[in-house]
């Protein structure tokens, strides 16, 4: 499936491309290559992490999952003591997780890999005082009976769970990037399909290839979830032709069952609407519930094509972190200071953290401004 090919490639690269990394804590400003960010700044809190794509917080403390595309590592909690000394706690045994989400009771949801073939398909859960993640649901098995009606590559049951969020009642939401749907999963492992994502006609003129039609039907490839009240905001990568600026954020009623998210009004149903447009290959997003500001973490300004060149050159382009006000005003934060984006999280007091370096030196950073 063209729409998820980059992530297959990332998984293959990650399996062989990482050396063991030594974790150490630090708290030094990230060097600004070529200028700051209009008053924003980044401070490195942890360095040397192993592919830290997953990020959430619990009572303001960032929770970092490792091993998305590299060696497994423990889930970490980072905080400061009353004397402002950094403190990092290992919350679990080493495990490879694509994403992590903290529930209200301190338990953690994790999207991981099936031990048989390494593909990210299992949803796990760990109790607040446990160290081991236990399997709750095999998402790939569920998708065998829940084919993607918008599939373009003759593989409608393909599955690539990529983002997870915790709900207040204890359930989890999962964005499946290959099956183009949003799933709801209970603690007992029962799965239902909340919403499906339709294809959208996307222009190909940025490719400069006259053999291509002017536009192609393109899969959504949902990657990330932020929950505010009864609404889930889902960010999408947007598949081939990977046009910069073509990614959307969808607003979905979490009570829905089989809603259709579509840019075509004739196909769209109630329970899902387009909330924001004009982003590029969204990797993660989060929302400040107090201010309504949305933080959208994107692969690179040039999109998937520009990012993939990094696998050949070893020089990945900068990631793009945008803050979007309730009124729609966009501000790029710390431009040029992040690369190979992982996750973004807004804590209960408005503190913003991100991870980056998912194919190299993984970091946890605090963003100000």
TrEMBL record:
It comes from Candidatus Neomicrothrix subdominans. Residues 1-25 form the signal peptide. The keyword Signal applies. Residues 141-160 are annotated as: Disordered. InterPro entries: 6-blade_b-propeller_TolB-like, ScyD/ScyE-like. Keywords: Signal. This is ScyD/ScyE family protein. The keyword Transcription regulation does not apply. NCBIfam families: ScyE_fam (NF033206). Residues 148-157 have a biased composition (Acidic residues).
């Amino acid at each position: 499936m063209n729409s998820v090919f980059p992530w297959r490639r990332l998984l293959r690269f990650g399996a062989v491309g990482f050396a063991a990394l030594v974790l150490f804590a630090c708290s030094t400003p990230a060097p600004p290559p070529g200028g700051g960010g209009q008053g924003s700044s980044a401070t490195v809190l942890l360095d040397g992490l192993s592919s830290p794509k997953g990020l959430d917080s619990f009572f303001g403390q960032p929770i970092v999952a490792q091993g998305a595309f590299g060696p497994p590592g423990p889930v970490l909690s980072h905080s400061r003591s009353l004397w402002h000394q950094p403190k990092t706690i290992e919350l679990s045994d080493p495990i490879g997780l694509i994403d992590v989400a903290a529930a209200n009771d301190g338990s953690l949801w994790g999207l991981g890999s099936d031990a048989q073939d390494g593909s990210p398909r299992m949803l796990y859960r760990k109790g607040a005082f446990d160290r081991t993640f236990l399997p709750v649901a095999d998402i790939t098995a569920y998708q065998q009976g829940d084919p993607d009606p918008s599939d373009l590559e003759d593989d409608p049951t393909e599955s690539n769970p990529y983002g997870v969020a915790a709900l207040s009642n204890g359930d989890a939401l999962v964005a499946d990037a290959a099956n183009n749907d949003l799933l709801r999963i209970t603690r007992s492992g029962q799965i239902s399909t909340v919403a499906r994502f339709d294809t959208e006609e996307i222009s190909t003129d940025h490719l400069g290839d006259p053999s291509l039609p002017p536009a192609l039907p393109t899969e959504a490839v949902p990657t990330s979830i932020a929950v505010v009240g009864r609404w889930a905001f889902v960010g999408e990568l947007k598949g081939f032709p990977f046009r910069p600026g073509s990614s959307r954020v969808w607003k979905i009623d979490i009570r829905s069952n089989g809603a259709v998210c579509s840019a075509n009004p004739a196909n769209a149903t109630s329970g899902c609407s387009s909330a924001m447009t004009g982003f590029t290959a969204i990797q993660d997003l989060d929302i400040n519930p107090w201010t309504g500001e949305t933080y959208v973490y994107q692969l690179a300004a040039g999109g998937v094509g520009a990012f993939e060149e990094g696998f050949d050159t070893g020089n990945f382009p900068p990631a793009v972190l945008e803050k979007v006000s309730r009124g729609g005003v966009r501000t790029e934060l710390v431009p040029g200071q992040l690369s190979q984006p992982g996750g973004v999280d807004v804590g209960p007091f408005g503190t913003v953290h991100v991870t980056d370096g998912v194919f190299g030196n993984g970091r946890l950073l605090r963003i100000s401004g």
